[in-house]
Amino acid sequence: AQSVTQLGSHVSVSEGALVLLRCNYSSSVPPYLFWYVQYPNQGLQLLLKYTSAATLVKGINGFEAEFKKSETSFHLTKPSAHMSDAAEYFCAVSANFGNEKLTFGTGTRLTIIP
Amino acid sequence: DARVTQTPRHKVTEMGQEVTMRCQPILGHNTVFWYRQTMMQGLELLAYFRNRAPLDDSGMPKDRFSAEMPDATLATLKIQPSEPRDSAVYFCASGLPGIRSGNTIYFGEGSWLTVV
Fold it and tell me: Which terminal residue of chain A, N or C, has fewer Cβ atoms less than 10 Å from its own Cβ?
């Protein structure tokens, strides 16, 4: 079974500051890990994914995440926040083979302070 | 630009009425998921299909919910009878799982359901 825990349901950062959204996972098999973003009144859009290749994964809109097996973490970062980054962010996990259904975290709402 | 299409986008209905939500997955995707999003429960997997066959519907209340794939281009989620606690956003997602895709799934815009 797989699960993810997102630390912090709300995160606020100033425009231009570092964005760090935390995600820890639990998985009985090697995982695939994902970050999705949801803008108001929209569906979820894939930001980036880890599929057992490079541990540092780069995604869209300047975001990246690092898979750390020893820490069971997959934190999302962006060096400089932009107003357009304000959204809800979801971490998700699936098994790396067979069962492909995604289990999502509870989400982190990111607010950007001008 | 391939995308998952969901209808209706918004629905307000009275308690006890039947609600049917439809989803057209991305052409070529063989796996379809139905998720429900609420403030209290977050994103919950209701059911999913591979090659039109249901693989897992353990997250779906069986007494009032049903999900089907009449063909490869249409998935439906039906609630009968609807109740106020069913008010939520229902997302359809599709994917083509495997090493190449990394199990990536693509979401539709959602069907926003309000039961009064």
Answer: C
